[in-house]
Every structure is written in structure tokens, then in C-alpha cells.
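Lecture 7 notes: from sequence to structure.
We start with the chain below.
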Amino acid sequence: MRGAYAPASRLSSLRYLSGPAGDDGEGRLTLRGAVIGLFPGQGAQRVGMGRSLAEQFACARQTFEEVDDRLGTSLSRLCFEGPADRLELTENAQPALLACSVAAFRAARERTGFEPAALAGHSVGEWSALVVADALDLGDAARGVRERGRLMQQAVPVGAGAMAAVMGLDPAAVEVLCAEAAAGRVLSPANLNGAGQVVVAGHTDAVERLVVLVKERRARAQMLSVSAPFHCALMAPAADGVARFLAGVTLRTPSVPVFTSVEARPVSDPADIGELLRRQVTAPVRWEATMRALGTVPAVLAVEFGAGKALAGLWKRTVDQPPVLSVGDAEGMPALQEALA
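Predicted C-alpha cells for the same chain:
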């Protein structure tokens, strides 16, 4: 597999960790409420993510072990040590984010004893949500998102597709401009993120025309440094590949409500879950609508589990209540414990 490490023996990248395993049962708190779990998507990855979790929490370390074993590669070492250019490859970034998010969720739940009220993930983060809701086995999800990433990268020749972020225009206005700039090419909203941000994706020349149109209207637009035009019709071959993969794995009814960002609603039927994961590859991420739907769920806290803080920032600017925290490493645990005390 391009960009992957050679197959490694079990936990080869984890044995070198010198930190203590930790007694994660100490200091458990009684939860007076429930938590909304948010799981980030591609772009949040960074070298070093998950390392402190694996050093200090046995359940997190075991999560990375399982992913390493199922992928037959030392993905954990790539998370902890890089190099960054290999971690950023789509086929590596997606399973790496999955592993880090699931590890953070498991460690936080073991340490604080919280109960999730609802879960949602941005793009590939939805696979993380399904894993912690027991709808999908971690090993199957790791293989699935690696394949998803490989297929998405291969769907469009390098340079043929692009993405851009538009700020200062509402989604309806951006959609109109997409139709104007497309000129027979593929161009559409890809991420409806809220807080005044819409990301578009499509053929490179169409995206470049859109950027000019946006600036003519005195709004802001910026080309993004991405490896492929995600969440648009150009990803149709990848969506078909995801469907073929899912046909060979078991999907179950989630134990916790999982909100799909394709339709901004909770999903429970396994067949529905599989179809939505297929559609997700080409459909826009309706993250603002998903956040607003989640905001109606009774909970004391929203928590972004995994690398980065982008989803917490969007939550603050869009929903705001309940309050939100980011927990992507061991250093985030004290604030979570305090918030749930």
C-alpha cells in the first residue's frame, strides 16, 4: 500500500513507550448528566497525536494495538512520530484519526464514567462515532477507512480536482455561485460547516472560477491544500468501492444515537447506516445542521474526542450550548473531570 509502513509485529511501535500504564479506575466521578460526542475528520491529523493517551491509559494503548494488528502496519508509530508527509496521505490520515478518536473516547469514559447521549462525526469521523456506539467493529472500521482513503485519493488524477473555503456568504448564495462557475464541470458545496464557512469541491478550473466570483462579491475565498476534491460527484468511484467493502462487514444497531451528517438526523437501521456511509463520500457534510440537531439532545457537555479543536470551535460559534471541550490527549482529562464533577 502506498505510503504505508511494512507489516510489523504486534505493538512494535508501542513497546518503546516509557510512560506508566496508569490506574485509570482511580478518581472516577459520578456523572450528573450526559455527553454529546463529536469526532473530527481529515485535516485534524498531526504528528504526536494519541501518544500521551497510549502512554497513560491502557485502554487507549490497546486501541492502537488493535488498529496496528488489523492493518498489518505500525500506524501508531506514524501517529506518534511521523513523518508528517506520510501521516497526511489520505489512506493513512483517515485510519490514524479513527484510532486517535476512539482511544480518546475510551480513555475519557474510563477515567470519568460519563455516559454518551448522542454522537456524530465530521466526514470520516462518523466511522469513529459508529465504532464507539458499537455499530461497527474497530478493526473493520480501520480497514474500511484505509480503503476509503485510498479510493478517494485515486478517484481523481492529481491536480484535476480542488477545494476552496468560502467565508462570508450563506450556503444558498454559494450554491448559486457554484452553478455559475461550473460551466459544465463538477462544482458543489462539500462542507456546510456553519459559522459562515462553506467549503466547495470540484474540478480545479471550476473552483478557481468560483474563487474569483466570491471575491468580486467582496466575500472571502481561499484555495485549500488538499490531495483530492472530497464530498462531490467526482468521488463516485470511491463511493462504489466503499459500498463493496461494507457488503463484507457486519453493521449493528448503535447502542447510542448516532447522527449522520448526510441528513443531520439520528440513524439506527444497519442497512440505512451502510447506505449513508456510501452516500457520505459524494454528499456534502451538513455539519451546521447536524450540530443544531445535536443541540436539542439533553446533555451537560459536548466533547470533541481526538486530534484538533476545529469542531469545538464550530460548536461554540454555532450552537454554544451545552458548553464544549476538546479531549485529544491525556492533558485534556483534568478539564473534562472538572466539567463533569
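Points to note: The chain has two domains: 35-155+233-340, 161-223. The two ends are 46 Å apart (CA to CA).
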